[in-house]
Write a structure and sequence with these properties.
mainly alpha; Arc Repressor Mutant, subunit A; two-stranded antiparallel ribbon; 7 helices; about 10% strand
Length: about 180
């Protein structure tokens, strides 16, 4: 459901929002921290600036900052900035669900649930609990966790590119099962 662009946006916003001095951060600095290409991160940031989530400052001391407090930035606003408005797959738009087919009613219910969950979660909550804790901390790879970014490398989102059976990581080569 969430694209690589959306996940990268969440990771960038978490990093920017957790910076204590709230000064503009360069795209390059954020990209290095996330293990992403500065060019790709600039594309992601443009989506967020265009929708008012980020504010861009030009010049030598320029960079990007949150345009509003993390408490006011919902997951829905981030998703819609990166993926567009969340639409439902209805048979045909109607004012009420009375008399519609079961699929139409299910699609409307699903749409309400998705929008509700995305609207309820805020950037503030992600910053407060950025990754797994306790016994899960070492066993669960988190897509947005800053610590995971340092150990897992730039692309933790499923890619359509084939990866080699042996991967070099900071701890040495790791074998992975190859599906045939």
């Amino acid at each position: 459901m969430l694209t690589k662009t959306t996940i990268t946006a969440i990771r960038a916003l978490m990093y920017i929002g957790s910076e204590p001095n709230h000064e503009p951060l360069s795209i390059r600095r954020v990209a290095e921290r996330l293990g992403e290409s500065p060019t790709y991160l600039a594309k992601v940031a443009r989506h967020l600036v265009k929708t008012g989530i980020l504010k861009a400052h030009c010049g030598v001391a320029g960079g990007i900052v949150l345009n509003r407090p993390p408490k006011q930035i919902t997951l829905r606003s981030i998703v819609e900035a990166c993926q567009g408005t969340i639409l439902a797959d209805f048979c045909q738009e109607t004012r009420t669900l009375e008399g519609t087919c079961a699929f139409h009613a299910a699609a409307a219910e699903l749409h309400r649930a998705i929008v509700g969950v995305l609207s309820r979660w805020t950037l503030e909550k992600f910053i407060e609990r950025p990754g797994p804790s306790g016994h899960l901390q070492r066993s669960v790879l988190c897509l947005v966790c800053p610590r995971s970014a340092e150990t897992a490398g730039p692309s933790r989102v499923k890619s359509s590119r084939r990866r080699p059976a042996v991967q070099e990581t900071p701890g040495g080569p790791h074998l992975r099962r190859v599906k045939r």
